[in-house]
Amino acid sequence: MTRPTTEPEAVPFPLRIPGEPFPPPRYEEYRRREGLVLTHMPNGGRVWLVTRHAEVRAVLTSKKVSANPDREGFPHISDTMGVPRQEQIPGWFVGLDSPEHDRFRKALIPEFTVRRVRGMRPSIERVVDGLIDSMLAAGDSADLVADLALPVPSLVISSLLGVPPVDRGFFESRTRTLVTIRNSTEQQRDTAAKELLRYLNRLIGIKVSWPGDDLISRLLATGAISTQELTGVLMLLLIAGHETTANNISLGVVTLLLNPEWIGDRRAVEETLRFHSVADLVSLRVAVEDVEIGGRLIRAGEGIIPLVAAANHDQEAFSCPHAFDPGRTERHHVAFGYGVHQCLGQNLVRAEMEIVYQRLFERIPALRLAVPVEELPLKYDGVLCGLHELPVRWDRPATA
Ligand code: HEM
Asked: What residue range is the signal peptide (predicted)?
């Protein structure tokens, strides 16, 4: 491709327009443009949007770009979200570059292998069944976001971390406050983050003295991560894995209700991840050296936003990309990012989604939406896409 020499016309920031469908139809037009798409952050910083699948992968594997949010020019999309800044919490390793990043990654990989996750399935099934039991006991309707999608990842991670069952209610409520932006104030989220940090510190102290069969004890035993860093690592696992998973669960249930021929087919999990691409604005980067991507020269210090939802709907990479087709053979979506920061929790997420879909539709075959699909409240918090609520109903089985 020849390098475009003229400055492209910049698109407006912020990138999300309230009420717009997701992924935004504008992405189609962005992908057709020559080179990359330019935008300006409110502080004037230049940021390049990357929308084609091959170019998103090129950015995320380039050694000339950094994931460090403290670098000049990094595109900070949102300062709230309850996400602590890296300098405040050591161990927030998604914001580190190689070689510092490698030490954390190496210590954590064994915790999320396919084999390890297979061993977690019975505990995930207990969590999911317990929540469905409560829904059924409560009547013939539920909000699947509050009653299932949000608690599943939180309860699963608390069991993985070795949070004692008696504390799981506390743990779940604080993580929920942290991520449900519509129902909590910034002050409440700040308090919840502090309480969680205090709790995690205490829990680490307990595991130092009384190790168990859990992730915290195993990480401590490696000696690779200090106890202070471990708090940041745990907070990262909590935040990275909570709303992302919840949003995929709820959007996946809606998509299956609209495409019931795929209920019971495991391939629906992977296609849900691609189709919805909820973590569209997560893999943010900044160039640390001049780098050429998509024929465009990005200067050191300029921000880069690989839009994974755009890449996952690129027709050069996926046939009929806007169709929900679990039978498709292309498996190279970038919903979990790509390269050295590719999602560590992906095997766990797949198991959670698979078990939720299987148990939910098996146990409540008459599940249906309680409102027309157009009325479902879509959630854009500036970073992730999901649903605020998912009202559903079912017919109670006739009692004898
Ligand atoms: C990284 C998506 C669930 C832990 C990432 C990244 C994406 C992502 C796009 C790359 C970030 C970057 O490039 O800067 C998702 C989605 C999820 C999900 C869509 C649910 C459907 C989880 C879960 C966990 C988790 C359940 C753990 C319990 C992590 C961690 C990283 C990460 C630790 C940082 C990896 C690194 O920097 O090496 N995730 N994630 N994620 N994710 Fe996930």
From this structure: none
